[in-house]
Each structure stands twice: as C-alpha cells, then as structure tokens.
C-alpha cells in the first residue's frame, strides 16, 4: 500500500488539497481492486479472458450513463489491441440495434448497481440466444450479476466526491478493470508493436510504429563509395546525395566506415583532398536494421547528435534514413 500524504500539514491551497484527497481516494480503490485480482477475483478474471478469446465474433460492450461512456472507451481499447469490439447503447439496442449482436459474439455489460433498467432487454436477448454475457458490477447478487455467465465484482469503495454521490472512484475502477482485460488479452495473443501499428496507421502514433525500412532511401539514392576512394571523389558524392555523409564499403559490400561532415572538419588541415576515405572515415559507425521502429531511430540520432543512419542487413548497407525523413512523417 502507498503512504498517504498529509496535505493539511504542508500549507496547500484548498484546490490542491482536494486534488490530493481525490487522487488518494481513487488510488485506495485501485489498490483494493488489485487485491481482489490477487485473490478471489483471479479465477473469474481468467474465465472472462477465456470467454472473450474464445469467441469468433466481436465483443459487444454496453452500459448507461457514466458506465456507458466508459464502456465506449473500453470497446475502443479492445478494438485497437486486436479484439474486435464495439459499443452498443442499451436504449438503442431495445429499438433495433439488438440485430447488430450475432451468435458468435459476447456481451460485456457494465453497471455499478447491476440493476440498470435499460440493460434488461440486452440481457434477456443474450439469455434467449445463449450469447455469452460478462458483467462488471459491484453487486454480484444483482439482477445483472445473477444473469451473467461470469461476473467481475468491483470492490465497494468510497467515492472521491465529498458527498459520496458523483461517480469518481467507481468509474476509475471500471476503466482500470477494462484496461486490465484488454492488456491481458493482448499479452495472451502475443500482440506486437507491429500489430498495434496496423490499427493505428495515422498520426504521430502510427508514424512512430512504422519501420525504418518503410521510409529509408535505397539503391542509387544511397551515398556509397568503395574503400580506397579519393576524398576528392567522396566529397562530390556526399554533396550530390545531400545526407551529410558517405558510407564506405569493402570489396564484399560490407560497411567499413562512414565519412561525415564532422570528419571533413577534423581533417581539413591534413591535406584532406590528397587522402582516401580509409584514413578519414569513422570506423564501426552506428547502424540500424530495416525492422527497427522509426521512433527508435529518432531516439538514436538524437542521443548521438547525428543526422543520418545507415540501414544494414548482415553488415551490408541496404538503405539510409535521415533525421528529416523521420520528422517529415511525424515521428516525435
């Protein structure tokens, strides 16, 4: 358990005191939920995972009010992590949307009290057609809890609202348990960052999950010269390609080193044009592979204060990626 702070003793303004009290109250609720998952709730949780993983259709999440808003978020989390899911409002379900629920689906119904009247139609539909029904509720003896094939019981905890009325801690627990289900299924399925990218192709997240091989420059666009090339020729290649560097390869096509703008400055007084790339290049330069995520590539160029990386496979250059390439697609 965490140690509670004492905001009254540190001269905090009233707003900050309230914030600390709210967060600590909700944190206590989360710890109570974690305690249940470490005990009596562990077996039901695993059975719910079995139900969701075993369906051939989709997970239908439903709820009313705050539980409905949270249900929509949970459905989106499932969908983005490899479990087909969507939210159906129970009131709409009672007016035709029950037809969206198939025999291969499962239903996840959320209600703190377990007695939400609007859920009766969708619950009855699930029982009539033997569609698996999972409940998230604080009352296992409620109508919803009794009807469900499996009920995940949330601990009865204090709301952060000083009047004990506004759903605060209770809604936090619903979100947390939904996230726990989605993440556990993600891990069961061996869901990878590459899989995640499939569901997030747009925006900064999608860009960060692209592979370097998707954006690297290849073929004649690579600044390559063979070992022994005079620096006078290497500088021309470097200037023409515009990457601020030129890679040096041996007779087998393996990367021997790289000549950068910095190397030119360091050797400018050493009869630079009379030398070959072998005496100027930096040996064992940092490289990456085509399968490297673009976010990782950006971390590397930033940490090493460089602007380009050679992309290699079995020590042979297959491409080059520039800092500007990463920034252009929105990696950050």
TrEMBL record:
PROSITE patterns (alphabetical):
CBS (PS51371), SIS (PS51464)
Xref: SUPFAM superfamilies: CBS-domain pair, SIS domain
Chain ranges of the SIS domain: 48-191
User: In Gene Ontology terms, what is a biological process of this protein?
Assistant: carbohydrate metabolic process
What is the protein's species of origin? Aurantimonas marianensis
Official protein name in the record? KpsF/GutQ family sugar-phosphate isomerase
State the Gene3D superfamilies in the record: CBS-domain (3.10.580.10), Glucose-6-phosphate isomerase like protein, domain 1 (3.40.50.10490)
Occurrences of domain CBS (ranges): 216-276, 281-332
Q: Binding residues for Zn(2+), per the UniProt record?
A: 89
Q: Give one Pfam family, short name only.
A: SIS
Q: Which UniProt keywords apply?
A: CBS domain, Isomerase, Metal-binding, Repeat, Zinc
Identify the domain of life.
Answer: Bacteria
